[in-house]
Amino acid sequence: MRLLLHPLLGPVMPGTAFSVAAVLIEYYFGLAPALTVMLAGLCIADYLFVPPYAVLGFIDRSDVLFIVSFPLVALIFITLVERLRRAQFRAELIASVAQSRYEMLLRHDNDRLLARRAVDETHRLLRHLSQHSKQFVLIQALERTPEWTNGTDAGSPRDAVAGVLAVTLPPAEIAPGPRFDDVEPEDIRRLSNALWPGSHRVRLRACEAAAMHASTGMQCETGDSAAQLVDCVCERFTTHAGDFLVLRIGE
Amino acid sequence: MKTSVRTIFNEGDGHAVLMLHGLSSSPLELRYLARFLNDEGFTTCVPVLNGYTAGSQEQAMEQWLDAATREYDALAARYERVSICGLSIGAALSLALVHRRPQAQAVALLSLTLAYDGWAIPWYRFLLNWAYYSPLRSRYRYRESAPYGLRNDALRAKIARAMERDDFSEVGPSTISLPALHEASRLAASVRSHVRAIRNDCLIIHAIDDETSSPRNPRFVASSIGSTFLRTIWLDDSYHMITSDNEREIVARETALFLRESEITSRTGDAGGKPVVSKALARRLRQLAAMGKGRA
Predict the structure, then answer these.
(1) With contact defined as beta carbons under 8 Å apart, do B160 and B143 qualify?
(2) Dist CA B91 CA A74 (whole Å)
(3) According to the model, what pLDDT value does residue B185 have?
(4) For labelling, which of A3, A79, B182, B240 has a CA lying 20 to 30 Å from the CA of B38?
């Protein structure tokens, strides 16, 4: 471009175009390429645009002025841009640290919320157990340790609850409730294999049905061998110690 | 008094972590992390690799890789999952190993070093590459100097005393031979060429003020690696030895979390594995997913 403008500009500002080029190279590519462009520009500009043109081996006052002024100006700009680039690089790194910490914070916050949700569920289970203590048929543990809690909340609450519940759970992961023996064994087997949250109907054994009728004031014929169907409710609890299904006889 | 160099092995669950220490160093520099991971349930193994660990005759980097592969295979034969974790040049070795054994569960790169270009590396460091081809090869040893990869002043002073009286300390050797440095450069060049082919889950942890390897090292891997589950964590209160420095607890906790998430994700096929109940985290994950799509 400087070559195109040379007929118009003549010997005026021979290094300006090369200074701009060096600064742009510094901004986009860094220090070493910029210094290379500056040195190349110094030689080219002195040879082509400082009179006498295209002559080697002749140094006069204008050459000396150019050789001193051009690098001085170019270096000042390159140094300033380099400092800004380094500050920008540092700022980007610090922003990366802040971002990493923010993401760590969010992950830990998520863990905390999960733990709190599990604690709430455990409390709900305990309230449920105490409120309907005489109506339970069975408690089934779906899994002892939920996968998502592996190693993350190595905390005391999980261990404590697991310890308490481990006592109540038989090896088959079915804990019998007070009404377990009142239900027909065939229904128990069916529910053990396919229990899900919601309503179920089970058959009470004959004598237990009679007792239930008596307690509720209903008439029951002596010697009636037919089992009675009753409504049951199954609820799911996601606790620290795992997921549990609790089946109880409905109100 | 000579410090003993021996393999660290802690029995845990079915997820084993093979941990590779830095160049010419010892398993001691990963002792804290190994213990933490074991407390979190992982089986951890920090092996002594012949020709790579301090105290053994230097060997070619292919021998390092073979020795690491043997350790990996021994763990893979006994445990359901094996992840690989490396520190410094050990991280580069981990990348080479995971390229050779793509069935590895995940790879954790701590203070990854593909080039010695940190702020404490002297400008004439490149001359050592040429010195390798001179008679200096067997005579000269590159001597470690302050800050020894440590930002923690108290620990740095302790390490300085240990370096004076012994060949190596718990954060690395006092000197490194030219053949070892040369082989490390070859290993780094090899890793650079095939990092794009690596698809395993990847965790990168690096300090922005790392005096040995600049942030350009992890940035290169993060932008090149083919992992779908990639997490980069930047630290600002440590130098190179992040497993011993001020933020070692963060390093250990995040490594354990990542390895467990990687395991759960691969087991359930569910992205992230763990339920996301935090709205802020869900928003951030959506942002990251959008950025990932943009990058792809």
Answers:
(1) no
(2) 42
(3) 92
(4) B240
The closest CB to that of A114, out of B40, B277, B280, belongs to B277
DSSP single-letter state for residue B30: G
Angle at A15 between CA A13 and CA A16, to 5 degrees: 70
pLDDT in tens, A188-217: 888 877 888 888 888 887 666 566 555 554
pLDDT band at residue A72 using 50, 70 and 90 as cut-offs: very high
Q: Which helix (H) or strand (E) holds A110?
A: helix A61-131
Query: Does residue B28 have a pLDDT over 50?
Result: yes
* Domain map (residue ranges) of chain B: 8-122+180-295
Say if residue B224's pLDDT is above 50: yes
Q: B259 vs chain A: nearest CA distance in angstroms?
A: 10
Distances (CA, A) of A47 to A119, B66, B232: 82, 59, 51
CA B272 to chain centre: 23
Length of chain A: 251
Domain ranges of chain A: 2-94, 132-249
Contact B30, B19 (CB under 8 A): yes
Count the residues in chain B. Answer: 296
3-state secondary structure of A109: helix
Give contacts of B280 with chain A, Cβ < 8 Å.
106, 109
Question: Residue A10's CB: how many other CB atoms inside 10 A?
Answer: 12
Q: Tell me the pLDDT tens digit for each residue of A162-187.
A: 444 443 444 457 888 888 888 888 88
The two tokens of residue B119 are 């702020």
What pLDDT does residue A152 have? Answer: 40
ipTM of the shown complex? 0.83
Identify the H or E element spanning B19: strand B15-20
Instruction: Give the separation between CA A154 and CA A158, rounded to whole angstroms.
Output: 8
Q: Identify the CATH class of B8-122+180-295.
A: alpha beta
Crossing angle of helices A61-131 and A156-168, in 10° steps, is 30
Token pair for A162: 């697991």
Regarding pTM above 0.80, the answer is no
What's the CA angle centered on A232, arms A144 and A176, to 5 degrees? Answer: 45
Residues of chain A in Cβ contact (below 8 Å) with chain B: 93-94, 96-97, 99-100, 102-104, 106-107, 109-111, 113-114, 117, 147-148, 150-152, 154
